[in-house]
Design goal:
Structural class: alpha/beta
Distance between the termini: 54 Å
Helix content: 25-40%
Largest sheet: 6 strands, mixed
Strand order of the largest sheet: 2-5-8-11-13-14
Number of helices: 5
Amino acid sequence: MSIFKEIKIWLTDILCISNYDRKVERKFWKMRRLYERGGYINRKRAKRLENKLQEQYQLKIPCTVKIGDNFEIRHPMGIRIGPTAEVGSGCKVYPFFVAMAAVKGDRELIKNHIRRHAKFGNDCLLGSKATVIGPVIIGDDVTIGACAIVTKDVPSHSVVKGLNQIRPKRPEEIPDKYKQAK
């Protein structure tokens, strides 16, 4: 074995870097690029890749979700985001996160392109086993804790835990780029 492979194995063990997460993320972004490229064949291939991701990893993020840059999927098991959701840039999603609609299968809303799922701002952290229900608006730099349930709008620079328990972030928790904007 070469010295480079040994170093890579050593770094992987120490830094807990896994290729598993990156592999799923690369497949996800490939699916998005194919869908956005348009055309019958590309959309068909994107749908096939979406189904494959759902079967293998229980990752249900449809091609129609509007997603910003630097979207990170951390440990991609059981993540479900609805088709009319909008996700800002720099968001991190942890396992078993669910963003669902309050009304199931209302055809008129879907035909009129009315958003039935949440709209997330930039730099959100969406915790493990958290659930967001309905067309709520989540502001920028929001942390939704593990096992939290959100059913109402959340202002920017907030932390959510439990059932709609919202508190503003302390000044030392707010990133510098948002402090300068104030």
